[in-house]
Amino acid sequence: MNKELLKEVNKVSQQDLKLCYQCQKCTATCPVSNFMDIKPDVMVRKVILGEEEDILKSKTIWICTGCETCGSRCPNLISVGKINEFMRERVYKLGLKPAVKPALDIHIAFLNSIKRFGIVNEATMLAEFKFRTKDFFSDLGLGLKMFLKGKIPLKIHKIKALDEIRKIMR
Fold first, then answer.
1. How far, CA to CA in Å, does 91 sit from each of 74, 88, 154, 158?
2. Structure pTM?
């Protein structure tokens, strides 16, 4: 049990999870809660109780889309998405294996694309993701269709303030 977890999550997410009175609106309105192994209201409770190990092993932190429906419906504006974001980063920093394997790979590929270009470049992000997962052919047909429709442009764009983005990322 991690007694410091609540303090850390509150600080990073800039919210007070002790304000949660378990009304379960977050879970009731979450569009992906049916796929979660720890429902949003239970996630808040687990953070308060310091049950970090359960959270780090959960699929929930990877399934959450970060849509902020939970926070917009919460009477106390608690965003479970911010908790999940914090815990995903924790998995990464601790070098743990995510419960949903490709989730960390896409997360890293996305962040690396932002670091390189300041915006997401779909082609390089996809290439890095495929390299990380070693799954080169499972969705080749779909990828080709997307490319032909211009959804995966090859031209690389960089933003003007790339140094500022890199500073933020550090």
1. 26, 5, 32, 29
2. 0.73
